[in-house]
Amino acid sequence: MAKTDHQVFISFRGADVRKNFLSFLTDGLKRACVNYYVDTKETKGEVLDILLQRIQESRLVLIILSKNYMQSNWCIKELRTTTKDITESRRKVIPIFYNVQVADVKDKWKVGEQAEGVEGEETVEEREKNVKEALMILTRHMGMRSDEYGTDCEFIEHIVKEVKKVLTSIEQEEKVKASVNTTVRSEGEKQEVSSLTGTNLPGEGEELETKENVKLFGITQRLQKLQEKLGMHGVVSKETRIIGVLGMAGIGKTTIAHKLFEEGKNKFHRRMFLDDIDKTSKEEGLTELRVRLLRKLLKKTDKTITEETTHESVETELLDSNVFLVLDNVSNKKQLEYLLGNRRWISQGSKVVIVTSDKSLVEDVVSDTYVVPGLNEKEGLECFCYHAFGDHKVHEGSLMKQSREFVDYARGNPLALKVLGPELRGRDKAHWESKLLQLAQSPSNVLNVSYDGLSQQQKEAFLDVTCFFRSENHKFVTALVDSEPDKGSSEIRDLADKFLIDITGGRVEMHNLLYTLGKKLASKQQKRLRNHHEIIRALKRKTGKSTINGIRGMFLDMSEVGTDTALSKEAFNGMDNLRYLKIYDSHFPQENEAGYKLHFSNGVKLPLQKIRYLHWLRFPGEELPQDFNPKNLIDLKLPYSKIKRLWDGVKDTSKLTWVDLSHSVNLSDLSGLLGSQNLRRLNLEGCKELKTLDARMENLTSLVFLNLRGCSSLVSLTEMNMESLKTLILSDCSNLEEFQIISEQLEALYLDGTSINTLPLSMIKLQKLVLLNLKDCTKLATVPGCLGNMKALQEVILSGCKKMETFPDLQENMRRLRIFLLDGTSIKEVPKRLQNPGLSRWPHHGDGGVKGFPLLRHLSLRGNDKIQSLQPDIGDLYHLKYIDLKFCKNLASVPTLPPNLQCLNAHGCESLTTLGNPLAHLVLTDQIHATLIFSNCNKLDEDAKTGIISYIQKKSQLMSDALDRYNLGSVVESFVGACFPGCEVHASLSHQAYGSVVVLPELSRHWSNNGTTGVVLCAVVSFTDYQDQNNHVLVKCTCEFKTSDGSLRQFSCMVGGNRLRTINSDHVFVGYTSWLQIKKQKEADDDDKKDYSCSDDDQASLRFEVIDSTRELVKNCQVIKCGFSLVNESDEAESFSWEVNRIHGEASEMEVINQQGETSTVSNNSTQGVLASRIIDNEEALRSQQRETRSIGNNNNDTNDVLMLLQAYSDDSELTDGDESQRMEEINQQGRKISIGDVSMVSQDSEESDESQNNKQDETNSCVSSEDQGNSYVQDCGRVTENTSAQMIKPVGLLCLMISISAGAAFILGKRKR
């Protein structure tokens, strides 16, 4: 790992969390696009201290504090490195308390027995003391505790959200946007900055950054990027370029422009650097500036330049030669009009640079822009040391901590560092610390330059964002803050253009320096109040009338109000300019009395004419007061209030956009909202008195989201058509008996927990519906047949619909269906279309298109007592990954399963006797994990059990070959496992023993280097005395190797596991682990991290034990037999057939969709042309999918992982809206796969096959063994590529391969054209 690009370093105890919690966490981070680092990502052979370096390089450190964390020397090193450095850097740390108590970590934790010893020159006592101090530092940081969440999945989801939030905050802090210009623009400003820093500033006209004796930091890379944009890097291009150099004041724009001009001026006959145009235009006037410019450019001509001369009048002379022109510090468009004219005079090959802090000025002028970045941490520290100590070497002395804090304060602003450094030179530590405090409280003298240049409305918007709306949604803030949005102007856009705020990830963010400036300015004005003492004083009328009248916003946190406060009815009188009012409780709902500390006598008046934003938790009145005028109201939130209606009669709510009245249990009248033409979101969750929706709500033409969850009095919906509504939530409306279509634009419909007994035939109108949730509709017996014609449906949830006995035939129109949950229903047979998916074969050839349900990922029939068998062709559903058959008590047989299956859960299928032969199609796919759960399937016959073992062994062999063939061993962690009733280790496992230990004294010393690629492990576990039958159990195998020097090496891997209900019989657990994974586990679990080789081992033993999900040993579960068998490389003399299958992925979906009535007859030439183009065009797609294949392998490490994923989709617990949305997003992302052209290739001998496959590892996605599939399915499309395939076989490398493909494709395409 030569260079890291990770954001998050994860410190953990491998023995505790690697195989369960950590794998889920890294999977969640990966889905959230967070670059994380764990030790397995490091390149083998690196010195172990590289791990500590990775901590230094990270933005955020997650320390997972688990039970045995302190037993590891290396964990303690990571802990101490993190906490030692955390106070001296901008890096953040989040402690994760996983199944441990915070109090125990703080008070009881110490160095474990396995980690005891002396480190370096430390004594034992010193080490104990230092470790204790590190723990205390760590626990002072806000952390996250697993005991606050119901499941690990929920805990991990919240961890990922917090990580994203922290990283976003860090990114904003790193975007250096200090607001002082690189050169101090006026004498007044010089004095201002001088008074702040106590340093002598350069005189007027002196170029701060371009003197030869001034060290410039980070200039080279920035200059190069600007030169590239101008076409001046190396040979000057002949293109005309006008480039805007942008950034906040002080970031270094002028410095770079000066450097650019000095290096490039000799390449142009006419050149000019026009310095500080803003200042000069005010002193001399724009006409004089234009005269100076034209005289400079035309000085070698006999042209007379006067005040009347324009660019147009001397255009001919100017076009004689190209120019290099830099316009520094442009502040308005009029300056550009005077200095550039109509720009037709700029000759070919000219370069013009416009330096400005306002992006809007150059949008219609420049061809490109360059935003100058701030100094990074290293550059900033060198810059500060140069000015503070006289050299650029980083000083690690007593002032290092303070030096870093000054650099952190400046956020990469070179001018701020330059001004601060000299004033601190030679001063003592006390002065430095005093200066830091001064800057933290009073940065405005440096930053006022940018603020003072704003208009009054822009200043108000800047302070509004600072005080109230930092990190809020961009569109939300824009709607609230902009003064006149109807006129097309936007202060938020203006502030972003001037680099005073930043729009990142759809949110409004602000540099910390500007945030501090804004808070100080706001505190002087006393117009924006957040301090509860100040707010209470204002409400009690204890401040001046003018102060009250000027209040613009108040955010009152009731958790900070210590006692009950009595207020007058007229408390808000006189607040004529109040725009933002929020009364909330940051501790709610933990403290249920939120909002009742304010007591108004005889109600409250709200004569707030300008109010835009009103949030009031537990509003005390039954309606808003009569004097309340909502004409400017945009956002209204009154959750948990006592209101029965908003107001009497009709009021102007034309600007109202967001309304939240959730859990207002007395609300029964929505008439106050009927005129809200711009209302987009309406949340009425938990409004239990709401009995109906007014038909006039269809006039809410902008409403896209309506939440009626838990409105238990709602019996039916009024007939209407809400033309914009996309999401309708009726979950837990327990008395809703009839559903009426109220919008044909619905994309998500939640009817779970309602009392509906049927769906209307008008459901066919919902052709945009993606998600239909009917979970726990216990009265629903049937659904209309038209459901099968809803083309957009991707997710259908019928879980818990007990009365449903039949489901209509699924039509081919439902080809986008990804999730189909029928668990808890009473259907007697699987829908017919699933019974006959019509796939000719998933390695598809010849029939012109994919039929059936090529995108189906998840099928659940759990708890069904009616179904006796599954459809025989279920194995053809290529992308089906999860099949849940738990407690299907009458299910007697399971057919051959699909190749991409990740988990089959058949726990408690009491009648299950036979399984398909083969159990599943053996194909190398992008899914290398497979878990088969047959616990409590006590009637399973011996042939079925033998088939399970055979599948495990063959799948293991296939994966081992793939890991070696495609060199994936260092990337993926494979797992194949199964469990089923039984009391014997299968005879095919060559090494067996009674009890929990198998000793192998005669095992070859070189078994890991003698063709062995992995190991199949088996354990028979007795649950006779096991009582706690509601927990995950895992079977762990610990491998112990006794070396020739007498030392003992050991490491562990998982065999399999299950979430138990009631198991009384013995069960067999079988699992496969690759040898590469074993070695990686060994290196990770060893505290000394030494390289490991089995060649030193004289004898080996395997010990099996049963543990729970916390890795604790489970008592009363006994391993009575065990065994294993080595998995070896394929016989080199054997010939294999490897096929690149067409994966029926998302690209195939387009074919599927096109075939819904849109397919036409395709000629042979056309077919060949399409195939040829696919072969060429999909080169990068193949490589991309190979990378995806490798990454997917990291999703789960053992059976526990698969079970938790399965639970996330189909557990008994109810899913939240967020869960369902996230699930749909995951499915959508998983579906984005590329269809791969059909290419078959047959190896003639093992040597040639190996070499050709190595050359093909970046192209090949799916491989099929000839043993399982043969060559009979290679039809017409395969023959088109026979010649090409022959070329592939030859070991001529990728280059020759692509030449051959391209030539063949060109020939076919040319033939088609002719």
Please tell me about this protein's structure.
With 1314 residues, the chain is α/β, with parallel strands linked by helices. The protein is 31% helix and 16% strand. The protein is built from 38 helices and 46 strands. The strands form 9 sheets. The protein has a 22-stranded mixed β-sheet, sandwiched between helices. Strands 2-1-3-4-5 form a 5-stranded parallel β-sheet, with helices on both faces. A hairpin with a 2-residue loop joins strand 11 (502-504) and strand 12. The longest helix has 24 residues, at 942-965. Residues 176-213, 835-851, 1087-1097 and 1132-1300 have low confidence and may be disordered.
Q: How is the secondary structure organized here?
A:
Blueprint lengths: L7 E4 L2 H4 L3 H11 L4 E2 L12 H8 L2 E6 L7 H14 L5 E6 L4 H6 L16 H16 L4 E2 L6 H23 L12 H11 L21 H12 L10 E6 L6 H12 L5 E5 L2 H8 L1 H12 L17 H4 L4 E8 L2 H8 L10 E6 L11 E4 L5 H13 L10 H11 L3 H11 L4 H13 L2 H9 L3 H14 L4 H8 L9 H7 L4 E3 L2 E3 L2 H14 L2 E2 L2 H8 L5 H6 L2 E5 L7 E3 L12 E5 L13 E3 L12 E4 L18 E3 L20 E3 L20 E3 L21 E3 L19 E3 L18 E3 L20 E3 L21 E3 L21 E3 L10 H4 L22 E3 L21 E3 L8 E2 L8 E3 L8 E2 L7 E2 L4 E5 L8 H24 L9 E7 L9 E4 L2 E4 L11 E11 L9 E12 L4 E12 L7 E8 H11 L11 E12 L9 E11 L8 E4 L5 H9 L9 H14 L1 H14 L6 H12 L6 H14 L8 E4 L3 H10 L7 E2 ...
Parallel strand pairs: 1-2, 1-3, 3-4, 4-5, 6-9, 6-10, 7-8, 8-9, 13-14, 14-16, 15-17, 16-18, 18-19, 19-20, 20-21, 21-22, 22-23, 23-24, 24-25, 25-26, 26-27, 27-28, 28-29, 29-31, 30-32, 31-34, 34-35
Antiparallel strand pairs: 11-12, 33-46, 35-41, 36-43, 37-42, 38-41, 38-43, 39-40, 39-42, 44-45
Helix pairs in contact: 2-7, 3-4, 4-6, 9-10, 11-12, 15-16, 15-17, 16-18, 20-22, 20-23, 30-38
GO molecular function: ADP binding
InterPro entries: Apaf_helical (IPR042197), Disease_R_plants (IPR044974), Leu-rich_rpt_3 (IPR011713), LRR_dom_sf (IPR032675), NB-ARC (IPR002182), P-loop_NTPase (IPR027417), TIR_dom (IPR000157), Toll_tir_struct_dom_sf (IPR035897)
Organism: Brassica carinata (Ethiopian mustard)
